[in-house]
Amino acid sequence: MNPTYTISYGLAQARIADLQDQARRQSVARAARAARTGKARSGSQPRSSGVPGHLRLVHRRRVTAAIG
Q: Measured between alpha carbons, how far is 68 from 65 in angstroms, rounded to an integer?
């Protein structure tokens, strides 16, 4: 087996493991922050889109005045 390939594969595996650990740490920190602020989500609540309310698209029916 080519030694360069082996080293690259090992580095790639280490990078993947590091990214997974980082994601896990961020998830735990996010959960702890939510618990501190009392905003922990239950499983039944819908997930927020993360878009601020003033930027969210709202579909409204168009009201037309009757011309008489």
A: 9
User: Where exactly are the structural domains of the chain?
Assistant: 1-40
- Write the secondary structure of 10-31 as one string of H (helix), E (strand) and C (coil): HHHHHHHHHHHHHHHHHHHHHH
**10 is written with which tokens?**
């090992």
Helix (H, G, I), strand (E, B) or coil at 39: coil
Give the model confidence (pLDDT) of 19-52 as tens digits.
999 999 999 999 999 888 876 555 555 566 666 6
The token pair that represents 61 in the structure block:
């029916």
Q: Which residue has the higher pLDDT, 34 or 5?
A: 34
Predicted TM-score (pTM) of the model is 0.48
